């Protein structure tokens, strides 16, 4: 199945680690096609990348069956879910004093 992203990666990712990514993606497709299941493990604060959007679609398409992650991966998406339109980014938060 051709898609713009698949075509780009297949054409440009030909060497060393990038070629290993192509091999891994093909292996993942074969694994799922043969009825295999997939577990994703995450550590560190990746939620800032809105990771839940990608994972939700992979879950809906039955491409991921198990997710194991640290709390840091859930915290920001959970806060965004609860606060939604009231959730605001605070630039330079590391420079704020406890009083601020």
Keywords:
two-stranded parallel sheet, 8% strand, mainly alpha, single chain, 100 residues, 49% helix
Task: Give the structure's gist in a few sentences.
The protein has 100 residues and is mainly α. It has a domain at 33-85. It has helices at 4-12, 16-33, 51-60, 72-83; strands at residues 39-42, 66-69.
End-to-end distance: 53 Å
- What's the mean pLDDT score? 85
How are helices and strands ordered from N to C?
A: HHEHEH
The geometry reads as elongated
The fraction of residues in strands falls at: 5-15%
Strands of the widest sheet, in order across it, are: 1-2
Radius of gyration: 18 Å
Unreliably modeled segments = none
Number of strand elements: 2
Output the number of helix runs: 4
SS-based structural class?
mainly alpha
Helical residue percent? 40-55%
**Biggest pleated sheet:** 2 strands, parallel
Describe the structure.
With 100 residues, the chain is mainly alpha-helical. It has a domain at 33-85. 49% of the residues lie in helices and 8% in strands. The protein is built from 4 helices and 2 strands. The chain has a two-stranded parallel sheet with strand order 1-2. The longest helix has 18 residues, at 16-33. It is elongated, with a radius of gyration of 18 Å. The termini are far apart.
């Amino acid at each position: 199945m051709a898609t713009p992203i698949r075509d780009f990666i297949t054409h440009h990712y030909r060497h060393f680690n990038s070629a290993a990514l192509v091999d891994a993606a093909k292996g993942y497709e074969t694994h799922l096609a043969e009825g295999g299941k997939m577990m994703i493990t995450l550590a560190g604060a990746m939620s800032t990348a809105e990771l839940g959007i990608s994972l939700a679609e992979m879950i809906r398409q039955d491409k991921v069956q198990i997710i194991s992650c640290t709390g840091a991966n859930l915290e920001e998406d959970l806060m965004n879910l609860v606060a939604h339109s009231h959730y605001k980014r605070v630039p330079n938060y590391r420079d704020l004093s406890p009083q601020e």
